[in-house]
Design a protein that fits this description.
hydrolase activity; SleB_dom1; single chain; Cell_wall_hydrolase_SleB; hydrolase; globular; Arc Repressor Mutant, subunit A; signal
């Protein structure tokens, strides 16, 4: 075979090979286009919630607040109740006579200070009660009133009973309850003696004050 013939054969083979490569290249390109990317194992960043979202989550997850406890109003039993005035305290008292001591106290108030203002009646009641605690007089209200020579309305050691329906008696009974229950402070709460303003016994006792038509001493 001559040199020119061999050259022609080599050229033909080269052209055929080049044509084959050209035919297969588009397929390779398409495969490259459809290939999936390979993961690089880098974790995706997590989304950080905003402050508003966090607060909203707290409101949803937080337990419900307990209901506010109802305020309880303490109801006083009467003895320690607060009154706007002595008149209000007197008006609030029931008229029932609880015991002999209360009855005696009301008798003393009635006969020694009926017609006096409420402050004056309370002051007389305080004197009687103070005597029961002083140690210088009988320890009971009835005993204080019945002590000889102390109260002019007492005759023969007997206490007269006021008319039950009299308004002044009902007031005296209510004042007696106020005084014994210590529901109102008297202006002469330390007094042990008293006399009417129109008399002058000449006592050398410490004067506490004057209430209504009586002057009080201790």
């Amino acid at each position: 075979m001559t040199f020119s013939a061999r050259a022609a054969i080599v050229a033909a083979v080269t052209l055929a090979f080049a044509a084959g490569i050209g035919a297969t290249a588009p397929g390779v390109a398409r495969q490259a286009e459809t290939a999936q990317p390979v993961s690089n194992n880098t974790p995706e960043p997590q989304q950080v919630p905003t402050m508003a979202e966090a607060l909203a989550d707290l409101e949803i997850d937080a337990p419900a607040a307990p209901a506010k406890a109802e305020l309880q109003t303490l109801v006083d039993d009467g003895d320690d109740a607060d009154y706007a005035s002595l008149a209000a305290a007197v008006a609030a008292q029931p008229l029932a006579i609880d015991d002999d001591e209360l009855n005696c106290l009301a008798i003393g108030i009635y006969y020694e200070s009926k017609g006096e203002p409420l402050e004056g009646q309370l002051a007389v009641a305080e004197v009687i009660l103070n005597r029961t605690e002083s140690g210088r007089f009988p320890s009971s209200v009835c005993g204080v009133l019945k002590q000889r020579g102390q109260f002019s309305f007492v005759r023969g050691g007997q206490l007269p009973q006021p008319p039950e329906g009299a308004r002044a008696w009902k007031t005296a009974l209510a004042v007696a309850k106020v005084a014994r229950g210590d529901m109102w402070d008297s202006k002469v709460s330390s007094a042990l003696y008293f006399h009417a303003r129109h008399v002058s016994p000449g006592w050398r006792r410490a004067r506490v004050g004057r209430v209504g038509n009586h002057i009080f001493y201790r």
